[in-house]
Design a protein that fits this description.
Length: 132
């Protein structure tokens, strides 16, 4: 199944893994929201889990020729960090459209840090925005 990815942490444009893993491999990147999820701080990266909240991130559509390789690279990185990949039908784009996308969620039993009430990992610091 070929789906775009909803990214909300270190893979978002401007964050540390974006350029290393996604730059040149995407056809589109746009701001998006994931309703029905909560965001938790983690050990240098966030964890999303299903719940009564909204997570802010980006919808990233890989170029077709890079899709298989990118999926393998992201799966390896994310599974090692305690995530599992899920296809969710609830990602909302800036124009209000709802799309199905891959989302890496905290796997059961993965320890999560404090809740990020804003749902936006880029603004997680209590005293204002932090750089990714």
């Amino acid at each position: 199944m070929t789906l775009p990815f909803f990214v909300y942490g270190t893979l978002r444009p401007g964050a540390r893994h974006h350029d290393r893993l996604l730059l040149g491999r995407t056809a589109t990147e746009e701001d998006a929201l994931l309703p029905g999820a909560l965001l938790h701080d983690g050990p240098g990266y966030p964890y999303a889990a299903l719940g009564a909240g909204t997570v802010r991130g980006s919808l990233v559509t890989p170029v077709p020729e890079a899709y298989g390789e990118l999926l393998a690279v992201l799966d390896r990185m994310e599974y090692e960090a305690g995530y599992e990949r899920a296809a969710l039908d609830t990602v909302r784009t800036g124009d209000g459209a709802t799309v199905r996308a891959w989302v890496y969620l905290a796997a059961p039993g993965t320890p999560r840090g404090p809740l990020i009430a804003s749902g936006d990992w880029f603004s997680r610091a209590p005293d204002g925005p932090r750089t990714p």
